[in-house]
Design a protein that fits this description.
Number of strands: 0
Shape: flat
Radius of gyration: 17 Å
Helix content: 55-70%
Structural class: mainly alpha
Largest sheet: none
Order of helices and strands: HHHH
Distance between the termini: 41 Å
Number of helices: 4
Length: about 100
Amino acid sequence: MNKITDWDEDMDDDIELAAGHRPTNVETVTAIMEYSRFGALAQAFVMDALMKQAKAAADAPPEAFASMHDGFVSPEAWQGVAREIADKLKQHFGQ
Protein backbone atom coordinates (compact mmCIF):
# COMPACT_ATOMS: atom_id res chain seq x y z
CA MET A 1 0.00 0.00 0.00
CA ASN A 2 1.46 3.35 -1.02
CA LYS A 3 -0.04 5.94 1.32
CA ILE A 4 0.89 8.90 -0.91
CA THR A 5 -0.58 7.34 -4.05
CA ASP A 6 -3.67 6.14 -2.22
CA TRP A 7 -4.23 9.61 -0.83
CA ASP A 8 -3.81 11.21 -4.24
CA GLU A 9 -6.47 8.92 -5.68
CA ASP A 10 -8.82 9.32 -2.71
CA MET A 11 -8.47 13.09 -2.28
CA ASP A 12 -10.57 13.80 -5.36
CA ASP A 13 -13.47 12.00 -3.70
CA ASP A 14 -13.16 14.10 -0.55
CA ILE A 15 -13.78 17.47 -2.20
CA GLU A 16 -15.67 16.29 -5.26
CA LEU A 17 -18.86 18.00 -6.31
CA ALA A 18 -21.77 15.80 -5.27
CA ALA A 19 -24.96 16.16 -7.29
CA GLY A 20 -24.26 19.80 -8.08
CA HIS A 21 -23.10 20.60 -4.53
CA ARG A 22 -20.06 22.82 -4.53
CA PRO A 23 -18.14 22.27 -1.28
CA THR A 24 -18.20 25.17 1.15
CA ASN A 25 -14.98 26.83 2.25
CA VAL A 26 -15.29 25.00 5.57
CA GLU A 27 -15.69 21.63 3.83
CA THR A 28 -12.70 22.32 1.60
CA VAL A 29 -10.42 23.41 4.45
CA THR A 30 -11.57 20.43 6.51
CA ALA A 31 -10.72 18.06 3.64
CA ILE A 32 -7.30 19.67 3.25
CA MET A 33 -6.58 19.36 6.96
CA GLU A 34 -7.98 15.85 7.47
CA TYR A 35 -7.01 14.05 4.28
CA SER A 36 -3.42 14.99 3.57
CA ARG A 37 -0.77 12.56 2.47
CA PHE A 38 1.42 14.46 4.98
CA GLY A 39 -0.90 13.81 7.91
CA ALA A 40 -0.96 16.36 10.71
CA LEU A 41 1.67 18.45 8.93
CA ALA A 42 -1.16 19.77 6.73
CA GLN A 43 -2.92 21.08 9.82
CA ALA A 44 0.25 22.79 11.02
CA PHE A 45 0.74 24.33 7.57
CA VAL A 46 -2.83 25.65 7.36
CA MET A 47 -2.73 27.11 10.88
CA ASP A 48 0.70 28.69 10.29
CA ALA A 49 -0.44 30.22 6.98
CA LEU A 50 -3.63 31.50 8.59
CA MET A 51 -1.72 33.09 11.47
CA LYS A 52 0.88 34.69 9.18
CA GLN A 53 -1.73 36.13 6.81
CA ALA A 54 -3.96 37.39 9.63
CA LYS A 55 -1.00 39.01 11.42
CA ALA A 56 0.27 40.62 8.21
CA ALA A 57 -3.14 42.15 7.47
CA ALA A 58 -3.76 43.12 11.11
CA ASP A 59 -0.40 44.90 11.39
CA ALA A 60 -0.43 46.56 7.96
CA PRO A 61 -0.75 50.34 7.71
CA PRO A 62 -4.09 51.63 6.43
CA GLU A 63 -2.43 52.69 3.16
CA ALA A 64 -1.86 49.02 2.34
CA PHE A 65 -5.59 48.68 1.77
CA ALA A 66 -6.08 51.76 -0.42
CA SER A 67 -7.03 49.62 -3.42
CA MET A 68 -9.97 48.22 -1.47
CA HIS A 69 -11.80 51.55 -1.13
CA ASP A 70 -15.16 51.44 -2.89
CA GLY A 71 -14.81 47.67 -3.17
CA PHE A 72 -16.98 44.83 -2.00
CA VAL A 73 -15.35 44.77 1.45
CA SER A 74 -14.20 47.88 3.24
CA PRO A 75 -10.53 48.11 4.25
CA GLU A 76 -11.61 48.60 7.86
CA ALA A 77 -13.68 45.41 7.84
CA TRP A 78 -10.86 43.43 6.19
CA GLN A 79 -8.35 44.61 8.78
CA GLY A 80 -10.87 44.13 11.56
CA VAL A 81 -11.46 40.49 10.67
CA ALA A 82 -7.70 39.97 10.35
CA ARG A 83 -7.23 41.30 13.88
CA GLU A 84 -10.04 39.14 15.20
CA ILE A 85 -8.58 36.00 13.62
CA ALA A 86 -5.04 36.83 14.77
CA ASP A 87 -6.31 37.39 18.32
CA LYS A 88 -8.22 34.08 18.33
CA LEU A 89 -5.20 32.20 17.03
CA LYS A 90 -2.90 33.82 19.60
CA GLN A 91 -5.32 32.70 22.31
CA HIS A 92 -5.50 29.20 20.79
CA PHE A 93 -1.71 28.89 20.78
CA GLY A 94 -1.35 30.50 24.22
CA GLN A 95 0.60 33.51 23.00
